[in-house]
Design goal:
- By secondary structure, the chain is mainly α.
- It has a domain of 121 residues.
- The protein contains 8 helices and no strands.
- The relative contact order is 0.10.
Length: 225
Amino acid sequence: MAAPHRSHRALRLLARPLFRVRDLFAVAAAVVVLTLCAGPVLAFPPAPPVAARVQAFVAENAQSVTVPADAAAPTVARDSFSSTPGYASLAAGGTNYDWAKLVLLYADLPLTDENVTVFVRWMRQENGTDDWWNRNNPLNNGWGSGGAGGTGTYDNLDLAAQNAAEAFYEIPGYAGFVAAFAASSPTAVTESAIWASPWATGHYANGAHWSQAVVPTVKSPDGTW
């Protein structure tokens, strides 16, 4: 029975180196791991700030333009614009000049200085300046006022302006001064056309009953518009 005992012992002796080799590999792996963990950590350098990168790009790609000393600046045409008073704003103003402009506006005639000047002179010859709104009929217009010879009355000055503008185009005898207003003619030309028209039976004595003096600005009382 001694032989079997020796054979078992021999097998155990042969198996021992195998266990030692396996242990050796485990130790070696642990050493590698510890070495990697303990070693220096690799770090990439930080990127430059955005502003620095932009400056570097501009410096590398800079461009320049050379302008001749005799170069002339181009002429730029700019559109002009203007504003026209509206019906409500003229009524709110309430003066004799506002009423003159209102009639021209209703009649689709230019609101030029020449036209307005003639108009307020005309109003002065008809009703005076201090009471130019008399009977809400500044031009003593018979059209739509219910009074022959221009003695009628309108409910307000706005209606008076509308009827005056309508009369300009409805009565053929007024075509001469309407054309003068439309052309923004010099004041003397337009005034002569008014005198020659049948607006006033006396024709303003062909201008003898007409003043070219400056017309003061006078506002009408509340309730007239």
